[in-house]
Task: structure prediction
Amino acid sequence: MAYLNENYLKLKAGYLFPEIGRRVKAFCEGNPEAAKRLIRCGIGDVTEPLPAAVVAAMHRAVDEMAVRDTFKGYGPEQGYEWLRGAIAQNDYRAHGLEVADDEIFVSDGSKCDCGAILDILGDRNRLAITDPVYPVYVDTNVMVGHTGEADANGAYAGIHYLPCTQANGFIPEPPQEAVDVVYLCSPNNPTGAAATREQLEAWVTYARKHGAILLFDAAYEAYITQPGIPHSIYEIPGARECAIEFRSFSKNGGFTGVRCAFTVVPKTLKAKTVAGESLPLHPLWSRRMTTKFNGVSYMVQRAAEALYSAEGKAQVRALIEHYMGNARILVAGAKAAGLTVLGGVNAPYIWVGAPAGYTSWQAFDKILGEANVVITPGSGFGRNGEGWFRVSAFNSRANAEEVSRRLQALRW
Ligand code: MLT
Result:
């Protein structure tokens, strides 16, 4: 009989969002009337239609595929040059940041890239991961055997947890000890907190001192509204020597169902062999992509390219303003209900303290049962998320207003 990957047996719970889905399904089956008024603010999934520029570009691309002369088979595994160029130019060079076209790797999603990056990192790295955290960073490390077993609290051996609490504004500080790989997400999922330039400078300084790599998830950068908050880790001098950046079209272009993202691997970024030789990671990631990936579909890459047209940029801006308008309504509603509210300023998530005496899951049950609104329990993102819950602003305006009213009508 074949052997299975026993690392999977170390995973403590099912992936958070399917688990929430199961509970919501059970609730709806048992409460068909309440199910009719259910509003979902759980998973951060976009609700608004694709920008018109994207739709037009996809239609054109489909038409090209229908004609022998313009038909495309396999594309470059790293992405078409015109898309890599548009990304590097618009997202980086236009902002004075040095990123070459061939440092951009186009993929079908940041979640996949966050897991796949472990292919090129060794198994003896000391990891630092925030708590609370986007669960993908932890679970993918468990799956490839980069952690030990979980303890009774669900903390995995081999991970240095960086506590994020109200006291530090849910922004982690570099630890005293040396680690090799650090996951940072700003603006943050789930807390909505965004790191300042000084906070990111401290991380880059730390990484350069210890030869560590920062895995910087910037999937929500388009939601930053406060001036001065960095949109990219490469805004910090020295980051090209210590950071990989993940970005996604899911939340800015509404591509959660379309699937397109990219990862930036600077050619100046190095890691070492066990023998101590320092080598660039760029060729390894390129090799990984050419071997395990056949590129994103032509139609989808044309769709992503359209986000960088003048029309596309204006439509993306309108989408983000829509969701951030929802965030403002939700923040105001939760505050009027007397709750502690963070986030919602530079991110489409609001992070709400459950009233005293309620755990995150108890708050989830109460809000689902009495307000018929699905939220995400903070404890699902880690121990320090206990006592908090996340409300996603991805919704219609009418739903955001209704959720705001229902939160205010709840009696705890
Ligand atoms: C979330 O709700 O945290 C996100 O939708 C997850 C994701 O982007 O994969």
